[in-house]
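Case study B.
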Amino acid sequence: MVKVQRYSNMTVSVLGLAVVGIGIAFKPYRPWLMDCGALIILGNMVPLLPVWRSQMRDLAPTMQKLQFLCAHYHVPFGLANAMYRWLWPFILTTMGLATAFLSASMILRNNHGLLHILFTIFDGLYTLGIVVFVTRIHSAQSILRKIDSVADSGKLAISPPTSAKFILLLIPRRYREHLVGDLEEEYNTIVLPEYGARKARNWYWWHVVISVGPLLWVHVRRAATIAWLWKRLR
Amino acid sequence: MQSRRNSKCDPLGEFETLVLMAVMRLEADAYGMRIHRELETRGGRRCSYGALYTTLDRLEQKGYVSSTVGEPTPERGGRAKKFFKIDSLGRTALRQSYGATRRMAEGMETQLGGASW
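Model:
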């Protein structure tokens, strides 16, 4: 049943794209044919809505559990995942509005006017909603893998940001090992369990930035003094 | 020579005093992270590790503290700790600094809001 529906949907989508293509080729009918093609593609999505709805129903409890586990293991959940509750109403609303504005612009012959601009905006938003929805399944899988690794190791496996560690290479060698070790120990044992992954990363970044400054300043000042002395002696 | 140096130590700055006190209080457990936490929780003083290590380095050069390198631990990503210990010269400097503050504050307890030295 689903297979037939998918096949028919695909055929209709290809038909819609073909109409858009003809519209691009024939300049006199371009706006009218392109709008017709877009309307066919949008209308074609309507039979898919119940399928998406059932997928969304399956996804919602999984996301809810994931959110709980992420909070427990201090794994970042992500903003796009946190919006999963609003994704379905968002897709429905933007899709409905895009169709309505397109139909209205066609009936009123308002091509390239306000109605058409509004259609373009809502069409973009609706496409974005679909993309976010589809990518959530992959995202959920990657989150599950992260949680598994954390639960298996029995400790927090979230390491400090790697790019921040590169900045720490600017620190003079004699301080570097101990300073980086201290930062990492405080991050792992105090900040991460207390404040969670996101705040801990921010904390790490902040300390890297404010730690590099004074240590570099000492060396800059020393180099400046040597340069000044050298200039005077010459 | 030593006694002469003892009697005339370089005056300590406010942050140096706090760091020396933290090292003294932590005794055998005085390394970067613990000193940093001690300054933050007890002293209410937020500082960067960069500032802390610069100060500890300066205190070491003055002969107020000495350092030893400890064993690497897994929570530090296999990096070694650097333990600090207050030396007799450091104790003298701290005593002088504390004494000077106490003498200056004598008779000002009420103005300082009942602070006991």
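Chain B touches chain A through 21 residues (CB under 8 Å). The remaining cases will be described in the next quarterly update.
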